[in-house]
Specification:
This protein has one helix at 23-27; strands spanning 2-3, 9-13, 16-20, 34-35, 51-56, 63-69, 76-83, 93-98. The protein is mainly beta and 105 residues long. It has two domains: 1-36, no CATH class; 43-105. The strands form four sheets. The chain has a two-stranded antiparallel ribbon with strand order 1-4. Strands 2-3 form a two-stranded antiparallel sheet. Strand 2 (9-13) and strand 3 form a beta hairpin. The two termini are 24 Å apart.
């Protein structure tokens, strides 16, 4: 895991990835970056279910998640999702789904 210098906290816990930055930085429009390598198991061509990700965020700016597959040869971008809206739920959650075949050779 690598994080940008202005990050307050970055961790993985119970299947979630957490990343926070100082409120002053967020108000100023500054970004923080987290790079993490994840390994999935049990994904097969037989699976028709997409891989689902949830983004929970505050109400400032936006959050962008970019997924790369680096398992076979040169890394390539699988998907990118940006969430800058505000949902009525307290965690301000947005979901995005990626077809399982994007993670297979």
């Amino acid at each position: 895991m690598s994080v940008s210098p202005d990050t307050i906290m970055a961790r993985m816990e119970n299947g979630k990835i957490y990343l926070t930055q100082p409120l002053a930085s967020a108000n100023g429009g500054q970004s923080v970056l987290l790079t993490i390598d994840l390994a999935y198991s049990g994904i097969s061509y037989a699976s028709q279910a997409p891989v689902t990700f949830a983004v929970e965020r505050g109400h400032l700016g936006s959050t962008t998640v970019t997924l790369w597959n680096s398992t076979w040869g040169s890394p390539y971008q699988v998907a990118e999702f940006t969430w800058g809206g505000i949902q009525p739920d307290p965690l301000n959650t947005a979901y995005f789904r990626i077809p399982v075949n994007h993670f297979l050779p």
